Amino acid sequence: MELSERSSDVGDLPTFDEVHVISDIHMGGKPGFQILRETSRLANFVRWVATQLAVLRSF
Questions:
Q1: Contact 6, 14 (CB under 8 A)
Q2: How far apart are CA 5 and CA 13, in angstroms?
Q3: Contacts of 8 (CB under 8 A, 6+ apart)
Q4: Is 25 strand, coil or helix?
Q5: d(C-alpha 29, C-alpha 5), whole Å
Q6: Are 16 and 4 in contact (CB under 8 A)?
Q7: Distance separating alpha carbons of residues 14 and 9, to the nearest angstrom
Q8: pTM score
Q9: Greater model confidence, 8 or 24
Q10: Can you tell me the distance from the alpha carbon of 46 to that of 28, in angstroms, rounded to the nearest whole number?
Q11: What is the Cα–Cα distance from 34 to 22, expressed in whole angstroms?
Q12: Which residues partner with 15 through β-bridges?
């Protein structure tokens, strides 16, 4: 079980302190027609989330 995951009072369903959701609906398409244009911002966010998880796991 992950550090951020705890047992719930609702049977075996897990509960989480945080959930990060990234929709991929606008990530595809032909060059020049993609809606997602801030790929570096998305990459930085994913790196930040990974860093936060590493910090939590070090406790």
A1: yes
A2: 10
A3: 14, 15
A4: coil
A5: 35
A6: yes
A7: 9
A8: 0.56
A9: 24
A10: 18
A11: 16
A12: 6
